[in-house]
Write a structure and sequence with these properties.
Length: 134
């Protein structure tokens, strides 16, 4: 009898654009359902790419977002949605950064835009996609 594989522990993800609650790709409508952990912000610069944003991590500005706990299956679905590829040509890179929210902190996945996709895109100074997209 072969041993049962250990389930992969859930990971946390920081979402800042169309995956936020009420937006066009609301993560809460995806399966398996994520677990909402809270709202927060992180250092970064947000860019308007038309119907969705991209963020470059770091810098003097803040990006508003939400933190969710996701299964490995949902993480894989997010990788597909965000165009993450195992080469430097993907639209987004998946990063893991420290994030704090509601008195908690953990390393969270963040989908950072590939700078090659930013030509001609304007910054969103507020760092809040929900406010910028209305």
């Amino acid at each position: 009898m072969q041993p049962m594989p250990c389930p992969t522990p859930p990971r946390r993800v920081f979402v800042y654009g169309t995956l936020r609650k009420g937006q066009s790709n609301d993560i809460n409508r995806m399966l398996p359902a994520p677990r909402y952990l809270g709202r927060t912000r992180l250092n970064g610069v947000m860019y308007h790419l038309g119907s969705y944003p991209g963020v470059v991590l770091g810098g003097p500005r803040w990006v508003q977002g939400e933190v969710y706990e996701v299964t490995s299956a949902l993480e894989q679905a997010l990788d597909v949605l965000e165009g993450v590829l195992p080469s430097p040509t993907g639209e987004y890179f998946k990063r893991e950064v420290p994030v704090s929210w509601a008195g908690q902190s953990a390393r969270c996945l963040v989908y950072e835009i590939n700078p090659a996709f930013l030509s001609g895109c304007r910054e969103i100074p507020s760092g809040d996609w929900c406010a910028a997209s209305t």
